[in-house]
Amino acid sequence: MSRNADFCGWATKYNVRCSDGRTILHGAFAAVNNKRVPLVWNHNHKSVDQVLGYADLEECDDGVKAYGYFNDTPSGRSAKSSVEHGDISSLSICANHLNERLSNVMSGDIKEVSLVIAGANPGAFIEDVAFAHGDDEGYEAIIYSGEPLLLHADDDDTDDTDDTDETPSESPKKESKKMAEEKTIQDVIDSMTDEQRNVLYALVGSAIADTQEQNNNSKGDNKEMKHNLFDDDNTSHGVLTHADKAEIIRLAKQTSVGSLQSAINLYVEEDSTLEHNFDSETMGSFFPEFKDVNPTPPELIMQDQGWVGSVINGAHKSPFSRIRTKQVDIRNAKTSNGFRGKGYVKGNEKKNLGNAKLIARTTDPQTIYVKDKLNRDDIVDITDFNIVDYQYKIMRSVLNEEVATAILIGDGREDGTEGKISEDHVRSIWKDDDLYTIHQDVDFNAVKDEIQGSDTSKHFGDNYIYAEAIVQYALYAREDYKGTGTPIFYCTPHLLNIMLLARDLNGRRIYENKSDLQAALNVSDIQTVEQFEGQTRNVVVNGVERTKKLLGIFVNMADYQLGATKGGEITTFKDFDIDFNQEKYLMETRLSGALRNVYSAIALEEDVTGNF
After folding, report:
1. pLDDT at residue 524 tops 90
2. For the purposes of burial, counting CB atoms within 10 Å of the CB of 466, is it exposed (0-12), middle (13-18) or buried (19 or more)?
3. DSSP class per residue in 397-411
4. For the chain, which residues make up each domain, given as ranges?
5. pLDDT tens for residues 587-600?
6. Which helix (H) or strand (E) holds 552?
7. Neighbours of 297 (CB within 10 A)
């Protein structure tokens, strides 16, 4: 080939691992030696103006060299000037009929050489364009070499050495040899870990076997796919984009996937348009195994847990597990036994204050636990994720929810039931004594009669009446409230939605958002608790048993004291049962809980006696 080429450079290099993990094997493009192909700009096929000239290809030991000749057109002259000035210094090729086995490109045909602006990745990489339908037809790709161009100007006669007998390809070969001497293949192999070397040897062995099989099959009919240089090859069938490769690499990094091969299998099976492009012996089947939509530990389906942290973290913590509260009640003593200041009359005896009522109670701790087991066979067989850690997370979530539920509304199990969290140890706010929790009935019918009696039925809907009743009775109960700070309102999601949807008959909302409702209720926050739904309790009122349905609880959790030694330490135990080949797990804590101030909570209820 002429030394008078405008430039030369590596069209592609052999035995270089591309950034996407693929390697072009030695001799993959042996068939292109002495071939002339178009030289274009940035693989643009939409206009003849993008053809800058032609390139003569020469297959060398280290890869394929391209000798470029610019044409005498405005675009050709502009490209030549940019190359000579060093503005453009990178080549890439568009190759089709690529045959790949186990990330090794075995063979292919170069159909064009392109000048490109070097991208962010300075090394070699392959950009797939489209996969062919037939297994033996290969696929098409754009391959970037990452090697700089070498200029061969016509007036380059400054070389002092006599090179009249030297062929144009000898100098590039010397350069390649020099580069190879700087870092040999053995040096690269020696720098690998044992695991990487084992993978390399396996890939080489598989590539040799596949090459032999391909050579045996080449005696049959040769199928060729024709492409015109200026065809808009915008096929949407089987395209593997950079986003696809990024997703495959992301999957491979996940511990649950385990390997790049597993990530490719998973991705291909999820995308049916790519499935037919891979070797059917390793990638496809008529009845593939089921794959998880999300290759991570199974998602837990449970009731909302957002309120749990608010309850546990907001409670006042005590380093003592036995709680004792004491108050002196002087309210009734003022009238019943003269517990008042008195005016003095000369000569009369001064009277002492009357007796006040001492209120005291103690709360002892109880151990609360969750216990479970796993079969050893399952621990060994489940490799997608760490089943033991997953089990611990479930147990901790259950324990937290159980403690928070016991604090707000109680255990829910009948007295005497095995495993019940006793309300003598963790006193529920809802079912606590009237001295500590104000139990306020909400009479929706009375509010409705009051509102509709004012002819407001022409202006407000049922949701407004419901919301107005909640606000009205809550504020009335706050007159006796003695808790510290501003409470939080805990209620069901449905009750919150009813109040937010309160409108007048013109469709205008009474409360624009949750903040407006908080201001109306005079609370710092509203927390929804799904566990409140359908909760009732039976109480005796004037000798008659009544059923009360829970609507919501107002409380500042700082008024609730949790007593636990060592900061409420949660202890975990693990034991192995040899007889049943099981691992058993126990998670427990020991604590007590109770409201520490009188009238420090409000429980809104609805009398539903006879409705069940």
Report:
1. yes
2. buried
3. HHHHHHHHHHHHT--
4. 7-156+168-182, 184-217, 236-296, 306-326+364-425+573-595, 437-557+599-607
5. 998 999 999 888 99
6. strand 544-555
7. 17
